[in-house]
């Protein structure tokens, strides 16, 4: 066994601080949220390398580009409020804010509705009843959401949303669009309570072209207490 010498450790520390000093500072109102679990926690449904790249590179990239896009603007701290009001942002910045604000909001939701296998709990009685009413039960929901995700051509997201009447609806969007963006931007507006990332970067390392296998596995890592909390909040905010 090789024991590192003090000078070796000092060199490493110096290299580390040099790295920190030269890394571009994250400037701006939006920040990459920390994960509530380790990057290996979602194995085998989502592998460690995918989690590290997806969160640490892709999501971080959306945050960085969003901060660049909103530079000099007075923006809400909550990115969901920003993307829910795209009409009010300057037209020359709208596409960048739509793509990168959507990317930041979508991934921020995605990480929180996932949990370690066996720790995902159960849907609240209220959410379970709503799933029963709209989809005939959990199997019906899984089928509808998996179908929406599997048939989304190219990159995008599949969603379970609460619509303006308070009903559960399954939909999908291209790119980083989010149902919060409203009817001018998406087919089915609403408040998302589940979002499934079907960009290839979300599954390609482990599943390659087998999007269906990824979609089958993701049900083993759903965080039902968090999805239920979002349901209750969205339901309270719906008009119907
Ligand atoms: Mn993604």
Q: How are helices and strands ordered from N to C?
A: HHHHHHEEEHHH
The CATH homology group name: Iron/manganese superoxide dismutase, C-terminal domain
Mean pLDDT comes to: 91
Number of strands: 3
Reading off the top of the CATH hierarchy, the class is best stated as: Alpha Beta
CATH architecture: 3-Layer(bab) Sandwich
Multimeric organization: single chain
Low-confidence runs of at least 5 consecutive residues: 1-23
- Described by the principal axes of the CA atoms, the overall outline is globular
Task: Determine Rg (CA atoms, Å).
Answer: 20 Å
N-end to C-end Cα span: 68 Å
* DSSP helix fraction: 40-55%
Major β-sheet strand ordering: 2-1-3
Largest sheet: 3 strands, antiparallel
The CATH topology turns out to be minor pseudopilin epsh fold
Q: Strand content of the residues, in percent? A: 5-15%
Bound molecules: manganese (III) ion
How many domain units?
1
How many DSSP helices? 9
Class from secondary-structure proportions: mainly alpha
Describe what this molecule looks like in 3D.
The chain has 240 residues and is mainly alpha-helical. It has helices at residues 6-22, 48-69, 79-83, 91-112, 125-135, 138-151, 204-207, 211-218, 224-237; strands spanning 156-162, 168-174, 191-197. Strands 2-1-3 form a 3-stranded antiparallel beta sheet. The structure holds manganese (III) ion. Manganese (III) ion binds at residues 54, 58, 107, 197, 199, 201-202.
Distinctive features:
240 residues, mainly alpha, minor pseudopilin epsh fold, 3-stranded antiparallel sheet, binds manganese (III) ion
